[in-house]
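lol ok so funny story. i was supposed to be doing the assay writeup but got distracted and ended up predicting the structure for this chain instead. priorities right. anyway since i did it might as well share w the group, maybe its usefull for someone
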Amino acid sequence: MAEAARRRGGNRMDPEPGEGVVFDASRAFDENGSAILGFAMNALRDRPLAEDCVQETFLRAWRSRDRYDGSRASERTWLFSIARNVVTDALRARARLPRIGDDTELETRTADAIDPLERLGILEGLARLSEPHRTALVAVHIEGRSYQELSVATGVPVATWRTRAYHALRALRGHLEGTEGQDAHS
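and the output, tada:
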């Protein structure tokens, strides 16, 4: 039955008895496309290239849909792994292009001084955090806001903001070190 769906060219296959989760590219794009676009935009700082990366991510996912194993990782994690590879390929391709113009402008841009793969790991880690944890981490550690300011602005207690920031940092560190836990995923 799955072979018949494949021959018809559809992206949705009916599972055979005993088969695992089926990858539905249309649904996956609806659920994850904007997050992956944001991830690619942050890594590349080039919207057209980021959009191309999102398209390539879902094309690669669709081509390898038979190898997706829902027991090994969630669909979102699997898609972000593919996106990370696509963005890495784009960064490497861009690095091979000859530079035109004055390099002094590049030296003044501190964000670009970070290794692109390290930056990509940080962005991927941030994307995996839940929204409240990501908000706490960005507000406190990137924007420099105090817990008290966040509490006044949102009505959420200071202790809650401290706990969210702590768990977000711990989860991000775990992601970067390759020892991911479940601290800030829910």
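The domain at 21-115 is CATH 1.10.1740.10 (Rna Polymerase Sigma Factor; Chain: A). The CA atoms of residues 91 and 118 lie 12 Å apart.
back to the writeup now i swear
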